[in-house]
Amino acid sequence: MLEYSVSVRELAEFCFRSGDIDYRFTPSPTAVEGIEGHRQVYQRRPASYQSEYSVEHCVIVRTEFSLTVRGRADGYDPELHYVEEIKTCRVEVSAIPSSVTAVHWAQVRLYAALVCAREADRDSLGLQLTYFNVESGEEYPCLESETRGSLLGFLAQTLDKYCDWMSVVHGARLARDASIAVLAFPHPDFRRGQREMAENVYKCATQGGQLLLQAPTGIGKTAAVLYPAIKALEQGKHDVLCYVTAKTVGSRAAETALAQLAGGGLQLHSLTLTAKERVCFSPGKACHGADCRFARGYYDRLPAARAAAFSEHRQLSREVLESVARRFEVCPYQLASDLLPWMDLCIGDIHYVYSFFARVGAVMEARRKRWSVLLDEAHNLPDRARGMYSAALRKRDLMVARRDCDGAVRKALDACNRMLLELQKQEWEAPEYHAMEAPPPALKGRLQKLAAAVAERSNRDVAWLQARPVLRDFYFAVLQFLRVLEHSDVDYRFELRRNSRDQRSLSHDQSLSLHLNCLDPARLLRPRQQAPHSVTAFSATVSPPGWVNPAIGFDQRAVYLALPSPFAAEQYQVTINTEIDTRFRARRRSLPTLVAAIQDWLQTVAGNCIVYFPAYQYMADALQQLQPGLAQRRVFVQAREQDDAGRARLLAELQERRDVVAFCILGGVFGEGIDLPGEELSSVVIVGVGLPQVNRETRSLRNYYQASTGEGFAHAYLYPGMQKVNQALGRVIRSSSDRGRALLIDRRYRDPAYRELLPPWWEYRFQ
What we know:
The chain has about 775 residues and is α/β, with parallel strands linked by helices. Helix content is about 45%, strand content about 20%. It has an eight-stranded parallel β-sheet. It is globular and about 90 Å long. The model is unreliable at about 500-505 (pLDDT under 50).
């Protein structure tokens, strides 16, 4: 018999949510504020009061499975005979909708019912729901009393409703396991290295822990990782899989692999998570029933939409989810959130697991699931994490936002502005830049008051904030700044910047911006890597492991495995030209020689070619001289803001034509994650060694890593740069029948430090 469990909070939300979507009360107080609020309430309770009182009830409610209800009541006083649920907030209690308080009361009743189920001599019990305002420190308690019979009846009815749904989930689970038991690998044979890769992924899922895999581009990493991880589901090694990637193309690769497995009989529920702004049916509307018809009555229509999505579809892609959402007139983004707990596998961006607002981790932790993460293109995680763990505020946005505000919000904005003026007046290390170890303590308080004022005003009028987009964006930037501030430490830098060349309508004084920059995300990544049952991180470019392991938050016990290439070295002719200096200060002088080398390559090497440059201006300068010789070629030039349509256009032309030359940016959207087998791509030319630009940010990184590791240049420049080169190299050879060529151009390849970071499975010859 299979055993399931559910928390009291999940049970209450599943069975008793109703009415509209209402985000006015989120973001709620932060975890730190919530803990502090509970602590203050506990200090006011008598000695007989027991905080965080554990309750659990196991009952066989269906012949085919059992269910355990578990949870911790915020408080239980056996002498005063009441159970308490505490909710921290920063709004007027009267503004909280009845649909929200109904769920809170359901939680209290369930806790009280579980206490009665444990204590047979209880004839009745008090139920207290207490709201605690974190801003004012005031309590708003409400106390009721209910009989034992009423509470136990309420529990039974609630469990009955929940178990009707669990019977559907249980049937799907049995079908899933039966299909996995006989599931074959989606290809006739394992490529060289694939079997070893799959075996190690299965071992990681079985034993738990962290696995870092370096495998050549084209080996078939997605299938080799997904197949054993899915096999481990049937064996009960873990409960849920989460496949995360830094780019949309990685999600598509996972969906394609799942479709292949489904063609082989797999019956598994998967969900692709998509950002709210990309799936919103009502852009520009507030996420509330008063402004958006897909939010109006959402929770009343959710049960039917959830049942249809789960019963009628197994692979819930973005398109499928949107179709179901339109059919039932519900918000697709919220529907995905409400389907997430019932999925066997979810696919999504890195931020769903590693950000401060990681939805997947929160769901898994709440449900006590043993979940495993499959981290695709793991080399992207450090840079993405720096962005997720950093924050910025612009004075210009504050000044524009205050034009449409009055009352408490205007007052709070003015207080923040005075703080910024004080920062501008202090002595800076340079006219446009100043760095500090931490922001002044007063800044946090003023930002908190601003956040509270905006939240309070928004609660009174759901469309008020949405109608002020500059204020809305500044408000969310303030919330991010406050959250980052909670986590900042020695691996952060607080920076003040202003742009003296600002020619916009606002003066130079308004160009001030505040930046709380994460230099090294490893400390914050570590607990997020330890939370899952297992993490398998994989990429073609995760070396040297001594740099990558700590950079992605893995601990010293993580297993590292570098797999051999399944391809023959002679399939790829890689030539290195070390005569041309592509460093920034030498580009103007060496440009004619570079143009001649590229022209010669395009004239002598047939087929489609991508030429990668380290910078847009460098590419534009070269193109100006190359253009006359490209008349016989189909030319594509990557735009600075390349949209999806432009990306699709190049991929289509590479499929259909054999005379394409594309000029792209090294490390950009065309530098990794695109699959171009056979004659779709015959060669690449890579100009430079991919080093990040030398600027204030990269100098800060170099100084930080020099102090912490003694290898500042390698960590800030060399390793990230050569990752871009290796990813671009990997675009050409994708199967055992592919043949291709590559040209690397830069005098720095004379240095063994650069050459040793090139993929070891190809042979390199020098011109």
